[in-house]
Each structure stands twice: as C-alpha cells, then as structure tokens.
Design brief:
Largest sheet: 6 strands, antiparallel, barrel
CATH architecture: Sandwich
Helix content: under 10%
Oligomer: single chain
Number of strands: 13
CATH topology: lipopolysaccharide transport protein A fold
Shape: globular
CATH superfamily: Lipopolysaccharide (LPS) transport protein A like domain
Strand content: over 45%
CATH class: Mainly Beta
Number of domains: 1
Strand order of the largest sheet: 5-6-9-10-8-7
Length: 206
C-alpha cells in the first residue's frame, strides 16, 4: 500500500485566475517523430519529442496519447523520457490589466482532462506560477492535481519523489510576497525579501 507523507489543498493567495477560457475552442495541434491514429476509437499515440499546442496551452514529452470522447472533450497522457520530465504550460485569464499569468508544470507523467478541467502531474511533480514571466509561487510533491476550474491545487508527498535533500518526499513550496502596484504604475518597494530554497533545483526539460 502506498503511504502519502502529506496531503495539502493549496488555494491561491491572490484573486483566483482561471485557465484561459478561449483555449477550449482552439484546435489541438501536435508534432512528433512518429504517430498512429485510430479514427474509430478517436485515439492518437505520438512518440518522440512530442509537442502539443492548443491555444495558449503547450505540453511536451517523449510519448503522448490523445483521446476524444463522443462529446468532443479531449484527454491527454504525456510521458517523459527516462530521467527527464514532461512539461505543461498555460496562460490564465488575468485578474489585472497589464498582468500576464502562466502556470507551468513538470512531472514524469502528466494527465490532461478537458471535461473536468484538471491537470494531474505524477511523480517528481512541480508547479510554478508566473506573473509577466517572473516566478511568484512554486509547489513540489509526488503528485499535484491542478483544478483549473476553481484555481486550486491538491498536493501529495511520497517516497517516489524523495531525493537526498528531501528523503521523505515531503510536500514543499514557496509563496512570494504580494506587492501592490501604485496608481502611477511605478513599482512599490517591499520590505519582504524572498530567499530561494537551495533544495529547489531547476527541472530538466526535454
């Protein structure tokens, strides 16, 4: 039986921004070294440096299975090459003028469910929240479920994602201080100083 070291529900510390709604109406485009599609089953299996694009959403991995149900909803399973991480990135509907928000995720396995509006990142999972390409928050765990509809994250820790700096595979994260921008558009000074966690190494991308 698998034992989780922690279960955490994380809601954003700022006004919730949902995934880009317009992405749902965009076509899914893909690139791969090879692929096989079954029109009757509405399933495609893509292999080798696979890249998926759907509006602002982008996913990449070594092997991808894409499926469409009778209602037209799409589902994807993205698998990383051995020793690497698959990736997911999507813009969120901004809550403030001039602010671009993105969610980036990395894991050995990523599952995308368009009907439920969720992204599951499994094994060595990491999620970053970016504002104008600057990292604000970060989550790490063995598995992370991103509920795009409600802007929530469900994080679990576990041994599969343990490393020498985190032998128990505990959930870890960073929440950056929020600084309000003055009406004149200048940057407000903040007394809070965010010190990066030395244990949060950059993931390897494909």
């Amino acid at each position: 039986m698998k034992h989780w070291s922690a279960i955490v529900v994380f809601a954003l510390a700022v006004a919730p921004a949902l995934a880009e709604k317009a992405d749902r109406t965009k076509p899914l485009n893909y690139e791969a070294d090879s692929g096989e599609c079954d029109d009757l089953k509405q399933v495609c299996v893509l292999v080798g440096n696979v890249v998926l694009n759907k509006g602002t959403m982008r996913a990449a991995g070594a092997r991808v299975q894409v499926r469409k149900d009778p209602e037209g909803y799409q589902y994807g399973v993205i698998i990383a090459a051995p020793g690497k991480l698959a990736s997911f990135r999507q813009r969120r509907d901004s809550t403030k003028p001039g602010l671009e928000e993105f969610v980036e995720g990395y894991a050995e396995r990523i599952e995308y469910d368009e009907k439920e509006d969720t992204v599951k990142l499994i094994t060595r999972a990491r999620v970053r929240l970016l504002e104008n390409e600057v990292q604000r928050d970060e989550l790490r765990g063995d598995a992370i479920t991103y509920d795009q509809r409600h802007a929530k994250y469900f994080v679990t820790g576990g041994k599969p994602s343990a490393d020498p700096n985190n032998p128990d595979g505990r959930v870890r994260g960073t929440i950056a201080p929020r600084v309000e921008t003055p009406a004149d558009g200048s940057k407000a000074a903040s007394k809070a100083v965010l010190t990066p966690d030395k244990n949060l190494a950059n993931p390897r991308r494909e």
